[in-house]
């Protein structure tokens, strides 16, 4: 397919309004295969304004006299207004943007064309495979193994090739358990909590159905989990749905684990108080709220996941590779007129939770708000390939790893660090339990009011925080002789 | 101490009102003449000043004992379980007596002794000097002068002795005007803007039932208007909601017309003029509700935020229903109007409400705070409170319920002002020299009655009570501890922040958790950016100073002797002794260690043992205790 077929006009004169506090830009507007460009002419200081068409959520056009107005509402919640000379030009540009911003094909999307200077293809892609996490677990315990039963994605299309399972359970049993779980998502290790030797597992709902079916291998698998933990360990199955919803799911073939079939495990539909127990988390499909719960639990418990590298690994492992269907969920954002059923801001919800956590423990996360904003932006529209597709299987088919750049290599460039890091970070080896009372939760202004609210005073203040923190490092590191002249020989 | 029957009760339980697992601490309860003290098994002390107690309740007996719930004016709520009902009853009765004093002389300030001699005490009282403050504004000048009309509180009992009025307003005019205004509170200057030559003036409402004119009052307004050479019109700002004033508004307009008529007539020296010429007084209504609405609004707010197991939607609908933030916005909007009138239009503004000591104080002081960066410093804020609140007769003792009196007079007007200021500090993190702790500490002391500043309802009453001889001023104590109250992000030189233009869209108003839940530790962030920044800033300064000291020492030595070896020795010998260097080194190491939980429960009202003292300790030690004590959560690790 040629993009040129979709581009109806070459260029037009336009004025761009970018919201309060921002000066309007005038210049030549131009639509390309992936971008909307505004070139203000040679003497202007910001020489080019660029918008990834993929980030347009909704478009509205109005014409009056011999001019037109296009309002673009973006997935990052920004609202832009373009005043364009010429009715024809306005309509053509609007139609071009409409067509190009809603292209479904993955392999013609911008990440497959994006070749930034300073980055090499294939970099950082092998940064966070499950093998890496398994090595960490294996250092602590021998109760788990890395299984490649899903090598060809036949057991579970939304799981990665390799998953971590109890050592005593063989691949055949995994295959049977997979058949008993929705979408083949059998229980796998999500997190190993070394201090207590307990584990966090995730899966999808069991397909018990109205006949209350059982699966011996699935029961064995959970039994093996308890056997592998310390003697007498107990387990909790946290069902993220309400008890009512879980019961109803039985009518459509889903359901919950029967108490009698899983001795040692207790089912809950509410938050769990602190106990040293093994946990299995699932909702229905196990690709949304399940991941939300397991990844947040890790941030609270695991100091490593609160580092820059650890957080990237967490997102890679618990969201991307764990099969959160990013392409479906993030196809549109708040402004879209059409609302497909499979679209939902689950990942944004996760980022907001992390932000709340960061607000309550401002010294304990190595990354700052900038990192969360970047993840939000890139999950909806990005020049990088990291959030493309819905699963590892799809990413393999599209050759995402070899043909696009990884977001992590983009973010880990030194020039990005000041924006993404938390200058006050001090490693905190403990669990960070947040308060969830309503009085303790805040509106994430930095995200929801990013474009409407002049952020200036707080940005300047943040700059000052950086400055104080860097001064601290500098003065601490400096030797008295640095500034004083060397003693005379 | 005739009210105290039981001084000590053992095995008392203190419940955490927000803990989900019904956790409690067991300890001993002591009753002293001034405080209720609870010491738990970890030797943590919780001090409650009797004056802070707003309400004591004895609930129905339970199996574990008799519950005693104490609500404090600083928004602390404690829930004790006393094993024996008899003890509970005794304590309950004692607290009822001790928390409500009948006369001023029984307040804590009259017995509080910080071990200062008389001259120190006097110097403390002289710290904030309003004569100096008017001088700072550039007064007196060719248009404004000090009036001695109220030198003996003859004209207005609730005004201070020193008042600034337009130079052309003679004493008969002032006297005449004061008779026309409620409680004699005639229009006087509150703040003078030197560059704009415009003034903020304040007064009370014209007397009700008025139908005729008051020539003197008209004269005085005219004089205020004329005292501003930059603008020919002035604003009269009524801070009350218009709907309550519907009928009154008509009269007010008439008054305006009469005044304007009169002024125009006199100016033109002939008969009645047409209405176009009367445009030099503009009336502005801003809807700030009265003290009763505010009192019940805060009550509703506290009911919502105090309920257990509150859902997010209940919290927000409760917040909306209480209307508290709406009132905060109304006060802020009024102050913005005031500041804009002066900055943009160069116009003088006369502010009033009913009596001119509640809403008028809020609007005048907040408006000045927006206009003048001085009031955003620690010292300047003290001056502002002293001027617009204390000296102009905000009735602290009535509004805070210092004495056992009419509960309908109690209202959180000053709390509201502090909250408006807090909202500004949130919106302009670099515009204020002081931090939130400063505001909280002032709030603590308007109720504590530990210092004389806020006792009484006006200056005349304070003089009669001989407060300056018998009690201490709060300000020197705050200033002494000012390190605790510095805002590390403060930028005193920023031109952008000279005049603040806050944005009052609704989402900028949020629940002030650190005020209304200041003692509910579990609701707060467990680590404080503010503390760490403050520490870093202080350490940076210290380190830079050390570097400079060392450099100059090296130079000195080099001048004395050219032996390089000695210089090196000097370096080695000096460096390890530098305390800042040492501590900054251990900062990195110690943060890795879990440190035992430090509960923030020690509060009294003395600045020496208040809840920020911990910060001060951490501060002086310059150790990472900030980080580690915030790790309090460690307690709860798996």
Helix content of chain A: 25-40%
Strand coverage percent of chain B: 5-15%
Report the count of strand segments of chain A. 14
Alpha-beta content class of chain A: alpha+beta
Helix content of chain B: 40-55%
State the secondary-structure class of chain B.
alpha+beta
Quick one: how many beta strands of chain B? 14
Model regions low in confidence, pLDDT < 50 over at least 5 residues of chain A: 479-489
Strand order of the largest sheet of chain B: 4-3-2-1-7-6-5
- The oligomeric state of the chains shown is heterodimer
Q: How much strand content do the residues of chain A show?
A: 15-25%
Average pLDDT level of chain B: 83
Task: Tell the overall outline of chain B.
Answer: globular
How can the largest sheet of chain A be summarized? 7 strands, antiparallel
Total of DSSP H or I helical runs spanning 4+ residues of chain B:
24
Mean pLDDT of chain A: 88
The geometry of chain A reads as: globular
Strand order of the largest sheet of chain A: 4-3-2-1-7-6-5
Q: How many strands, what sense, and barrel or not for the largest sheet of chain B?
A: 7 strands, antiparallel
- Count of DSSP-assigned helices of chain A: 17
* Largest interface, counted by CB within 8 Å of the partner chain's CB: A-B, 55 and 69 residues
